[in-house]
Amino acid sequence: MAGNSYGTLFRLTTFGESHGDALGGIIDGCPAGISLDFEAIRKEMQRRKPGQSSIVSQRKEDDEVQFLSGIFEGRTTGTPIGFLIPNTNQKSDDYSHIKDTYRPSHADYVYEKKYGLRDYRGGGRSSARETACRVVAGAVARQILPDIKINAFVSSVGEIFIDKPYQALDFSLTESNAVRCPDAATAQKMEDYIKEIRKQGDTVGGTVTCVIQNVPIGLGEPVFDKLHAELGKAMLSINAVKGFEFGSGFCGARMKGSEHNDSFNEDGTTKTNLSGGIQGGISNGMDIYFRVAFKPVATLLQKQEVLTNQNTLIEQQGKGRHDPCVVPRAVPIVEAMAALVLADFYLINKIYQNH
Amino acid sequence: MAGNSYGTLFRLTTFGESHGDALGGIIDGCPAGISLDFEAIRKEMQRRKPGQSSIVSQRKEDDEVQFLSGIFEGRTTGTPIGFLIPNTNQKSDDYSHIKDTYRPSHADYVYEKKYGLRDYRGGGRSSARETACRVVAGAVARQILPDIKINAFVSSVGEIFIDKPYQALDFSLTESNAVRCPDAATAQKMEDYIKEIRKQGDTVGGTVTCVIQNVPIGLGEPVFDKLHAELGKAMLSINAVKGFEFGSGFCGARMKGSEHNDSFNEDGTTKTNLSGGIQGGISNGMDIYFRVAFKPVATLLQKQEVLTNQNTLIEQQGKGRHDPCVVPRAVPIVEAMAALVLADFYLINKIYQNH
Amino acid sequence: MAGNSYGTLFRLTTFGESHGDALGGIIDGCPAGISLDFEAIRKEMQRRKPGQSSIVSQRKEDDEVQFLSGIFEGRTTGTPIGFLIPNTNQKSDDYSHIKDTYRPSHADYVYEKKYGLRDYRGGGRSSARETACRVVAGAVARQILPDIKINAFVSSVGEIFIDKPYQALDFSLTESNAVRCPDAATAQKMEDYIKEIRKQGDTVGGTVTCVIQNVPIGLGEPVFDKLHAELGKAMLSINAVKGFEFGSGFCGARMKGSEHNDSFNEDGTTKTNLSGGIQGGISNGMDIYFRVAFKPVATLLQKQEVLTNQNTLIEQQGKGRHDPCVVPRAVPIVEAMAALVLADFYLINKIYQNH
Amino acid sequence: MAGNSYGTLFRLTTFGESHGDALGGIIDGCPAGISLDFEAIRKEMQRRKPGQSSIVSQRKEDDEVQFLSGIFEGRTTGTPIGFLIPNTNQKSDDYSHIKDTYRPSHADYVYEKKYGLRDYRGGGRSSARETACRVVAGAVARQILPDIKINAFVSSVGEIFIDKPYQALDFSLTESNAVRCPDAATAQKMEDYIKEIRKQGDTVGGTVTCVIQNVPIGLGEPVFDKLHAELGKAMLSINAVKGFEFGSGFCGARMKGSEHNDSFNEDGTTKTNLSGGIQGGISNGMDIYFRVAFKPVATLLQKQEVLTNQNTLIEQQGKGRHDPCVVPRAVPIVEAMAALVLADFYLINKIYQNH
């Protein structure tokens, strides 16, 4: 109810501020008997953490996850999986200058108005550091979805777009560059642009595209809990996200029905896939694909006007170790949230799909 | 869990197939003591129902809602509000031809695969007729949100867009034309285009923009239940929706932080509003605005290939009384879902906002 | 949240006041493909309704249930099952005398204090008439639990108790007398006593015992959602219930561990069953049995002091058609609630039991 | 869904096995701005922990709770409160003998059957050690309920009962003896009896009575979420509980309505209180009181037959440091669960009570 849980059957609840002792979470509802691949979890954490390359934040976060329960002799026991990510590198003094001020386009102001106080050290609960817990849970969720492939990648940075359909891309190349764009030429342009933006002390937005393959038919519940509605909510819950579209998306709104309908093949697959793998909220076995829009990071290394809690405006020089462009690091987060959504529907479907 | 409820505190649960005896729902969690304006509810139902003009479906649905409980002497009692919308105009024979076939880009195929059977009369549960219950509940929800103004309108049909910011529009004109576009010149173009499309037996998509004004600061819960994430889910749960963006949306992903940040005024309002009235998932008191993409209706009055349950493809002539363009009728549905989301957060905030 | 739903996967939401137009409910989460036995549902409704014999209320309630959705050609479709029970025999004038008064040990007073108003016609939402919806849903729930046998019966009325263990009873005799006590001699004593109580214009309490057999091992979730904890909540939610015990119950609190432990047989069954078929909140395959205490009905056909809404006490003569003893009619309600609890855990277990 | 959360608005989710690295939990939904009394929390933990006196288990558990988030400068921030209780004194070797065996009246057997494996070190998740997290959360919950007084005490051990109504007891004496019985003479008898039982290597059951005073009118939701139904579920979810009754309880089932009804005073209070402070599921402002039955602890320091996972029966000598009687340590757990229930309804009531 207070917003810190995701999912119903495969349910993640998280806690933690960016500058407290630790972040952590509880995964409740993970089936028993799964031999967890801890290396896979560690690898996802590495992908999310800052300081991986010159185009992302140079903060150092070790992001070592400690599993405290729910696992015995390497296998899940069916009891809740508690985990902890200690905050080993909090530098509270980085943030002391914002104690009495509200930064533009941050959550400082609304937290203080809503709760009457706020943990002003860093972003507190609204920091993107919170997404580390999502990545842990997503990496566990993927392991109960063995055959489903989830591949996200950066599809645009600022005005630089991949100009190919996803089918023309080789997802194995996504990790081959710092931007996480599987098209090498475009990746280079993006990287150059991000470096330029960084020099300006500025930031830039971008989009992440995610493709989910080998999805069984039948995932998703009709009416309010449509599969794409939950995917949309999951993506929009990630910091800095401003939009979500799946299948034909906003382009579909410009089309005619005779262009948009996906004709069947005799085996139930479809010749085209403008539907994006989902009909009436339920997966139809075709690829699911969607696109997520991220705004530019609000923290600039420039002078900006900030509001004080005395209702005056003062100029403040941004500082710290922030990302000039958030989308490369958003890639594993998008995948993690997709995995959480799928895991939940996969478990629900064990009940409702009439085999 | 099975997808037929929306909301947590102000909670709507619905039932009903397009060709059963009735649709209906239960609103649980409506506060006591509210003098309901039944005329306002009736008016919203009128806006949604087919047959209002020449550019929408000519089906006749009386859509009279009967309230069965939870209201005494005109006021809500705090007990659940049960309501019924009888299906007075079901023409099952319109649909008998689809008993053994699956129409392209409909939910027929996935329902049958998921559940092992389906109510083949019309769209069954996946019919947009289901949205009638949303409109009833949304019209009740609005009445616990007295000062908040929710105005949706058609912002594009096919390639025809309103080329003005919403601030330049007069929402009182939305109902003055059949398209529900508050810009008269654009509305005329849209109407002409829809008529042309209808003659072709074709359909066309479009977008609905929604503006919410006078929102108190503090609505929305951090992390997973961000206000815009719930708005996104609510909109994506409406039939035919393919995308959602709020504030700067997908355009924001092309921008730099120095362009995108909304500078404060001394009173806590902001000079610009690319954030779309929401920071960190919580309303900041500025206008909330978002845009919803609807694909073209899949049912065409043309010949199309359909899949039979014997795994063959046959040609079928579409017939019936369908909408050539769904967006005009989607306007009250978008508003209703927005009202449901806001009502839920408004009630939650009674607990969590520290006044 | 507002208390009108029961269950998570097999979820019943109800509405309706005793003197409104209708009661009704929605069953969401019933699996698809079940051929419903409507006669079985009707029969359970008959067992619950008043006027069946001289020892229960002589109100006439037809209690015809109308199913409005979720069923197609006799089978469940996986979509929500909406149902309606019209109130055909409301006599509001029976209750006009209580408009401005609060009856002792009724909910009149607390409803008015909580909600600021109340539907004073009869018990409104707090009337036991509400349990009709539970019986409908319970009768559906039983049909997804084919091999599990649920048998409730009256085990005491006032000071008259069955003095045999349940194993010595023949449950097929429960319906052979008006009291629903499977021991004929005790049933006769109970019936005589209830008739005497009725002549006095008084009422009397009693207990219902319920035995559930053929339960698979593994139902129930650890820690907070233990099987017996949910059974307890379900029973305590029935009007007039004051206590719940299972297995050894309150007697167990007097025993020593060496007397109480249930030794195993080699096949995993136990030699004794003081545990009542549940260990650590999870069914162990032995019979589940529990006992529910019902207080005497508060409405007396005698003079009683009532409180007015002007804070004065006045004498009022009780009238109407109330039950002198509620437990005979409570038997099918206890069974229905047990079925709802089991159905929910049965569905959950499809996910969590590691087969 | 998997049973490790309690509450809806004030929501506790827990994790942890008795012999893992740590237990812990997340409290989500605690309002912001509360200055937490950490000493009060520590004190409740002390009351629960073993080794406090000669009549309880001599295990040493430090039970130091570490708060990791949601608190800033001593006050709650409205974000989730994560906490950790390290297991500093696990002696896994105490339990190695039960790896391949199932102890009578323990959860070993059903966990293994349900999940296909179990953490055999101690009780794992089914250990009463899990209740430490409940006590932490309950101690926080009490601090949002400032005027409500919750007093539990041991009302019986075996056949030894307090023979006075609770009104004749001085709750300030509860902590004055090892049994937590506020009647000194009875406490002495109980203590002597428990020592005798311990010498026999046996255990004994008992009851805890809880009295809640200064409850505002209006807590509890009608129909399924009645206040006493939730209290019942909360109590029945505690390890070893076999029964729950409130107000007149099982005695009420023997009474006549003319004896049982609670007549009003002119101020809305009642002359008697057989209702136990709750009418129709909603608090009426009178004292709430209930009684909870605990079975004797199943672990005996005697020889018992156990089942092996090879389906043979062998004799095993119980060993370890278990409680001869669980009820003294159950007192703070009962209070904690009562506080959790009340906190949840107290928050819900902020929405639904029409002031």
TrEMBL record, chains A, B, C, D:
Gene3D superfamilies xrefs: Chorismate synthase AroC (3.60.150.10)
Pathway: Metabolic intermediate biosynthesis; chorismate biosynthesis; chorismate from D-erythrose 4-phosphate and phosphoenolpyruvate: step 7/7
Organism: Flavobacterium silvisoli
PROSITE patterns (UniProt xref): CHORISMATE_SYNTHASE_1, CHORISMATE_SYNTHASE_2, CHORISMATE_SYNTHASE_3
Pfam families: Chorismate_synt
Biological process according to GO: amino acid biosynthetic process; aromatic amino acid family biosynthetic process; chorismate biosynthetic process
Any one GO cellular component localisation term in the record: cytosol
Description of how the protein assembles with itself and partners: Homotetramer.
Function: This reaction introduces a second double bond into the aromatic ring system.
Recorded superkingdom: Bacteria
Binding, NADP(+): 48
EC number(s) recorded for this UniProt protein: 4.2.3.5
Family to which the UniProt record says this protein belongs: Belongs to the chorismate synthase family.
Keywords: Amino-acid biosynthesis, Aromatic amino acid biosynthesis, FAD, Flavoprotein, FMN, Lyase, NADP
UniProt name for this protein: Chorismate synthase
Cofactor(s) this protein requires: FMNH2
InterPro entries: Chorismate_synth (IPR000453), Chorismate_synth_AroC_sf (IPR035904), Chorismate_synthase_CS (IPR020541)
Cofactor note: Reduced FMN (FMNH(2)).
List of residues binding FMN: 125-127, 239-240, 280, 295-299, 321
A molecular function (GO) term: chorismate synthase activity
Catalysed reactions listed for this entry: 5-O-(1-carboxyvinyl)-3-phosphoshikimate = chorismate + phosphate
